[in-house]
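Dear Dr. H.,

I hope your travels went smoothly. While you were away I took the liberty of generating a structure for the chain from your last submission, since the lab meeting agenda had it listed for discussion. I wanted you to have the full record in hand beforehand rather than looking at slides cold. The sequence, exactly as received, is reproduced here:
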Amino acid sequence: MNTALIVLNYNDAERTSALVQSVACYRSVSHIVVVDNCSTDDSYNTLLPLAGEKIDVIRSESNAGYASGNNAGVLFALKHYAPEVLFIANPDVAFSEDTVIALYSTLMENKEYGVAAPVVRQGTNIWNLPGFIGIIESLFLVWFTLDKKLIRHNVLKDSRPIVPVDVVEGSFLAISADAWKKARGFDERTFLYAEEIIFAKRLRAQGFRECVLRDHFYDHLHSASIKKAHKSRKAAAFHYFRDSFRIYNRHYLHTSKTQDRIFDICWYLGYLERRLYDIVKSIR
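The corresponding predicted structure, in token form, is as follows:
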């Protein structure tokens, strides 16, 4: 059993250290690669003492986002350790060793799956792979939230322990090394958002699917790193959503100029919705 866990840090050394220390004793996690994504605080020096026989701490040359940072960690792990399965984890998650073993076994025994994940306890980590209409729906909080809740409900009702899904969230997931290589990793043209759906699209093109393990769960202090950077305002990071989904629309859905204009109008309406949400939340 040869695995590698990639943990991407940005100005969040305390949570990153806590996660790494909590899973370092897992025998099922062979190697841990901590990537400091060019933090603006002293995270890298804070994390360096973690380095040892099982743990590497590396630093990216610039903060080019989730995709670039995790790709750097994966490439380091593949070069030095050649793991069979890669685990990607945000600093603000918690998971058991039983879950790690179950994810590993699922990917090793079911080669049609390139990605496997447990079910998150807080919120939902499962999405449909969107076409253009799905992208428009995802711009609006109420619509997007209800859709994700319905998907989660259906997964938990499913009688199968391994449930095929379209897309799983990038906060915690397992990827077979073979699938990662064939899909060419995450699209580094994105900075934040859309990485998971683009990766799912790339996986499908290579004949892989994604799945969740209905009976395994993990905890996610949802988007704690993002909220920390943007002071918990939903509107503050929404421009990244626009930029990343423009890439998805143009390069993966091959949208027309008319569709691109519709997207931009709907994005602006979604931005106003989030501004209103932030205002209401601030006065409660």
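Two observations you may find useful: DSSP finds eleven helices and eleven strands in the chain. The first helix runs from residue 13 to 23.

With kind regards,
E. W.
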